[in-house]
Design a protein that fits this description.
Blueprint lengths: L5 H7 L2 H13 L8 H13 L3 E4 L8 E7 L3 E7 L3 E2 L16 E2 L4 H22 L3 E8 L7 H7 L8 E8 L3 E2 L6 E10 L15 H15 L8 E8 L11 E10 L2 H22 L2 E10 L6 H14 L9 H8 L4 H11 L29 H7 L2 E7 L10 H5 L4 H23 L1 H17 L19
Parallel strand pairs: 3-6, 3-7, 7-13
Antiparallel strand pairs: 1-2, 2-6, 4-5, 8-13, 9-11, 9-12, 10-11
Helix pairs in contact: 1-4, 1-13, 2-3, 2-4, 4-13, 6-7, 8-13, 8-14, 13-14
């Protein structure tokens, strides 16, 4: 830490409690819309911090909100706590050692804990200074493919929020540039006719043939998609396991992504026509069901510069010599390409001997940033939003990997988590303390919406896919 700040000291007081929360969530990994234990742990922490608590947000049992303060502007801090399937891994072990089914392979156990830690520190600052204003912690489930924030935005839960702040664990520290892909997930179910595959195949109409023809059609579409667009697929139902039966039903999920929300609908329509063509070719019929949809991120330069200023004052995460051996052990499991990819994104020469990030990335580093998707995108269209990347793992660690899960309870991860909380708390404090800063951020946001109004990508008839609780 390069200097001191009262808000950092307020965050530091809560280190033990929120490290404990992060580890508790790590130990009960739950996938999208099933985060009952994780949400309950966050509610307990909100109760301990004296928050006014709201539950079942947007009809989602695992979505919660805590609020502190009165009057003034409203600053939201966004947290997440969902895990990923098939990424259970024993923590603190630098070799693949699966444990259970789900695991925190994207660090959301840290994400939610640091976000609430920042909100609590901000609430302490509001109370201690007598500043009018409200800080809210939004506990958001199902970021991994569930688009819970999109449902929450659609339900109006950010209607009175003035700005939103979040972060994500990473292998470096820098402001999260507004680069993400809008996307929608659609399940295409083909319905045909079963038959004996040898005795009377002419009587059958193969749903599996239709799925495979659809995928061929989408592959030919790739040459003609907008720059940066992506389409991925997964078989949800391949028609059974008996090759001597013509499959009467098969389902494929298509994940369609574009750089801008405005391009998404046109690409989706082309994919739908390919599905209809596959059905015509096979004598089947097709049913399409939207599963989720999210918008691209809308940047806010005012907020990004404010966060960068806080990040620069705080400096890089204070890793020490004790953190290096495990980081180096993890690095030994990665390829040279993994490590080079991180530095390529940062616009820096590759430092192959640097196991943990010891720098802050400048705001305009000029790297080649790879893009995924996040439901924070819809929040960014609803209110001015800014996010941070903060180092919690060895350089080169890929998201959605056993290596990231393995580092989720290490001291280095805890240090990065606390660091993120301080950055977010300081950024929020500046928005409360400097009305002109918040006004400028809101004016920039309004300008974007005047040029391109927000249209929720989630169809009105689609509800959150809440599974029955065992």
């Amino acid at each position: 830490m390069q200097n001191t700040d009262r808000i950092w000291e307020m965050a530091e007081r809560h280190r033990t409690a929120f490290v404990r929360l992060a580890d508790r969530v790590f130990d009960t990994p739950e996938i999208a819309y099933t985060e009952h234990e994780s949400a309950a742990a966050h509610v307990e922490a909100l109760e301990a911090a004296g928050a006014r608590i709201s539950r079942d947000l947007a009809g989602i049992p695992t979505a919660v909100m805590g609020e502190w303060g009165t009057g003034g502007p409203v600053i939201a801090i966004l947290g997440e706590y969902d895990a990923l399937p098939e990424l259970g891994q024993e923590p603190g072990v630098a070799e693949e050692r699966p444990v259970g089914r789900a695991g925190h392979g994207c660090g959301h156990n840290l994400l939610g804990s640091a976000a609430m830690m920042a909100a609590v520190a901000l609430s302490d600052w509001l109370a201690g200074t007598g500043t009018p204003g409200r800080v809210r912690y939004y506990g958001c489930p199902a970021e991994e493919g569930g688009a819970a924030k999109t449902f929450m935005v659609r339900a109006g839960l950010f209607g009175d929020v003035d700005a939103a702040i979040s972060w994500h664990p990473a292998d470096y520290t820098g402001v999260f540039h507004a680069n993400s892909l809008a996307n929608t997930r659609i399940d295409f179910t083909f319905l045909g006719r079963a038959a004996h595959a040898a005795g009377a195949p002419e009587l059958g109409r193969s749903a599996l043939d239709a799925v495979e023809l659809m995928n061929v059609g989408v592959n030919y579409l790739r040459e003609h998609m907008p720059p940066g667009a992506r389409v991925h697929y997964a078989y949800l139902d391949a028609g059974g396991t008996a090759p001597n039966v013509v499959p009467a039903k098969a389902t494929v999920r298509q994940l369609i992504r574009t750089r801008r929300l405005g391009d998404l609908n046109a690409l989706v329509e082309r994919v739908r026509k390919i599905a209809e063509g596959a059905a015509l070719m096979t004598g089947t019929r097709v049913e399409a069901r939207v599963v989720s949809a999210v918008s691209d991120l809308l940047g806010n330069r005012v907020l990004e510069e404010a966060m960068q200023a806080s990040m620069d004052r705080l400096g890089p995460v204070d890793f020490d010599a004790a953190d290096l051996p495990f980081a180096e052990a993890i690095r030994a499991t990665l390829t040279e390409e993994h490590i080079a990819d991180t530095f390529r994104q940062l616009g820096r020469p590759v430092e192959r001997d640097l196991a943990l990030c010891d720098f802050v990335v400048p705001l305009d580093a000029g790297g080649e940033v790879s893009m995924g998707s996040t439901d924070v995108g819809d929040v960014s269209w609803a209110v001015p939003t800014v996010q941070a990347w903060v180092a919690t793992c060895a350089i080169g660690t890929p998201f959605h990997s056993w290596q990231l899960t393995a580092q989720g309870k290490m001291p280095a991860a805890h240090k990065g988590m606390v660091h993120a909380a301080k950055i977010m708390a300081a950024t929020g404090r500046d928005l409360f303390a400097r009305p002109e800063l918040l006004a400028a951020a809101k004016a920039e946001h309004a300008g974007h919406l005047a040029r391109e109004p927000y249209r929720c990508p989630m169809p009105a008839e689609i509800m959150p896919p809440i599974p029955a609780r065992p």
